[in-house]
Amino acid sequence: MSTDTNKQLVRRFVQEIFVAGRSESVDDLVAPDFVSHTWGMTEDGPAKLKATIERLSSTLRDAEFTVDDLIAEDDRVAARLTASATVVDEFMGMPAAGKRYTIGEIHIFRIRDGKMVEHWHQYDTAGMMRQISE
Q1: CA 45 to CA 101: how far, in whole Å?
Q2: Comparing C-alpha atoms, which of 122, 121, 113, 123 is closest to residue 29?
Q3: Whether the predicted pLDDT of 130 surpasses 70
Q4: Among 22, 60, 79, 91, which residue's beta carbon has the most beta carbons within 10 A?
Q5: How many domains are there within the chain?
Q6: What range defines the domain where residue 109 resides?
């Protein structure tokens, strides 16, 4: 697949999984052997990703993700995003406070045959925690 096709796939993943929280999109976008190294999904990755989507959809509202950069080479795409959401339920050990956060995130995807096979994720944890605890 071309790097442009892989970038389009990442944009679709961001929109359908991160923004819309559509767990049914996992079957179209994620390989059966999907591994998310950061989220600890090394076995049955698609099922665990669906469970994560369900959990976050009940915890966060009005999620927005802006794709600031997409960089692709071979089978990998790096995405630099600006993410924001409102916390409406307990989140990462913090009580629901109805506060909104905006942070930077980096995601790296490895793609095989038009599906996500591996994922790595880094984000501004300290900035997020500061914003939702103030």
Answers
A1: 27
A2: 113
A3: yes
A4: 79
A5: 1
A6: 3-133
Please state, in angstroms and rounded to a whole number, the distance separating the CA atoms of residues 77 and 67.
12
- Phi first, then psi: what are they for 53, rounded to 5°? -60, -45
Query: For 43-84, how does the pLDDT look when each residue is reduced to its tens digit (9 = 90+)?
Result: 778 888 898 888 888 889 999 999 999 999 999 999 999 999
Question: Which residues are paired to 112 by β-bridges?
Answer: 115
- 100, two tokens: 């909104």
Answer for the pair 51, 39: CB distance below 8 angstroms, yes or no: no
Which candidate, 23, 6, 7, 8, places its Cα nearest to that of 58?
23
How is residue 28 written in tokens? 């179209």
Per DSSP, the residues of 66-106 read EEEEEEEETTEEEEEEEEEEEE-S-BTTBPP---EEEEEEE
